[in-house]
Predict the structure.
Amino acid sequence: MTNKDFNNLIKKLSEIDSEAGQEVAMRAVKQAGAIVQSQAKLLITGDTGALARSVRVKNEVKEESVTSTVYTNSKYAPYYEFGTGPNGEANHQGISPNVSPRYRQTGWMIPADAMTIDKAEAYGFRVAYKNGDVIGYYTKGQMARPFMYPALHDQEDKIMKNTERLFKKKLKEICKK
């Protein structure tokens, strides 16, 4: 089904029953938000699950519009999504083409008390020692691990098919009356 056909379908339903059109649009937008939220959570790999748990959906109905916003208020989500430092700049495939992050051009040291040696080594950080004591971990940043943008972009077809299915189902219900 083309966008033109789909728009005609929506128009026909709204002409037949405007409340039904609004009801289906609301359901479709809310389901789209849930689809994106679910996919975003699946794309996050991590050991604590805190970032995945922070992905939320906010649905709003205002006059003639319905919106579903998928978001996270995690402070480190942007670093995860876009990467950091030279490593992030060198490897940020999959981020939104509408975003142009600026990356720090030099590496830096993370304080020793920020994590364990095992965790630092798992991230690929070099351990810095002074007089035999760990003083920190050298890093050139992290590669991007996009989860928000791909969660929407890669689900567009699924969302459109679901929306189309909901509208067709409602049209059939109304036509049977």
Remarks:
- Residues 3-83+145-176 form one domain.
- The mean pLDDT is 89.
- The first strand starts at residue 55 and ends at 62.
- The two ends are 26 Å apart (CA to CA).
